[in-house]
Amino acid sequence: MSKQPLNFLCISTYFKGEDFLKSVKAEGNNVYLLTKKKLDKEPWPWESIDDTFYIEKWNHEDVVKGIAYKSRTIKFDRFVALDDFDVEKVALLREHFRMPGMGRTTAHYFRDKLAMRMKALEEGVNVPEFTDLFNNDSINDYADRVSPPWLIKPRMEASATGIKKIQCKDELRQVINDLGDERDNYLVEKFAPGDVYHVDGLNVDGKVVFARVSKYLDTPFEVAHGGGIFRSASSKIGSKEEKGLQKMNASVMKAFGMQFGASHTEFIQSKATGELFFLETSSRVGGANLAEMVEAASGVNLWGEWAKIEAANLRKKTYKLPKINNQYAGIVVSLSRFEHPDTSSFTDKEIVWRMNKAWHIGLIVVSDSSERVLELLDQYTERIGKEFHASLPAPDKSV
């Protein structure tokens, strides 16, 4: 007897998650996409999508009414947010329609940087010293107690968007003053130079079932604010840092109540002390083509497996992880001064992926040797810098 298809409503106000949509469909389910009208020309996997619902811009009440109308004839089984900026919106939708999955409280831990830090601190996870910007006395006390430099961060933005580095108390006072009535949407934390790592994982029944540790060779902050070239590479499996980060990631997922799905979590290792600190997390697959890098190293497609986890959870079936490879991969991505850069002069056999995006150049390499991956990334970064690289100023906030 064939199983009844499940109805997935996938919500994304950005173009991403194609492999999630394909995987849901390949499992024999129905896929409905809710996205912005301006994204209708993007190369979505249309053959995997049963119907698409468009909005001009996000208005919560209008979206609720639209889904309520569609629900008269379609019994949706799952709402899924494919992008970081949609996590909280979809959590609100789940609560309105009493849909299983992450509600607003848990979603906050994966979106609001202040909520993340407070919860992590409460659960004994190491975080940089921070304070909210609610109370003047608390801010003054923090600035007197914690030496600069500091970072001012928007609570709800993704990646390095909107982050400012502050060198002294007078500058801090000025920046907070300039924020005006928006200051409650920001926090300030200690800036400690160090290596930034990311752990990309899958969670099932409240446990981490797969996680791969990688290191940004240039941090997202440096790339966004210095016009640099983005690079990341798999960490040495079994190394002290890798083991420490695997353990810390499991602690964060447990503390934040992550039950099932994909996660992308960032940590920093202090250059001065070697200590590991939790920076931020999100309940989705990492951006910047990191999923392709993780797949090249491990054989695990995070988008596709996340879709299978959602379906298994709905059907009350046991999810089975695919066979894992223990290779090493690295990615290099840059803006290009050519609309369609020619990468045919990059001929190493380790190349497994080439970026196909206007005004960008990117490569992923894979090898049994971590050292070989780093060697190739260094070579490519130098070449791209000389032959292709272009840069733009960082945006103040998301658009």
Automatic annotation (TrEMBL):
PANTHER family given in the database record: ATP-GRASP ENZYME FSQD (PTHR43585:SF2), FUMIPYRROLE BIOSYNTHESIS PROTEIN C (PTHR43585)
Organism lineage string: Bacteria, Pseudomonadati, Bacteroidota, Flavobacteriia, Flavobacteriales
Keyword Acyltransferase included in the entry's annotation: no
UniProt keyword annotation of Phosphoprotein present: no
GO MF entries: ATP binding; ligase activity; metal ion binding
ATP-grasp domain ranges (all copies): 117-311
Name of the featured protein: ATP-grasp domain-containing protein
Domain of life: Bacteria
InterPro entries noted in UniProt: ATP-dep_AA_Ligase, ATP-grasp, ATP_grasp_subdomain_1
Organism from which the protein derives: Winogradskyella thalassocola
Keywords for the protein's UniProt record, in alphabetical order: ATP-binding, Ligase, Nucleotide-binding
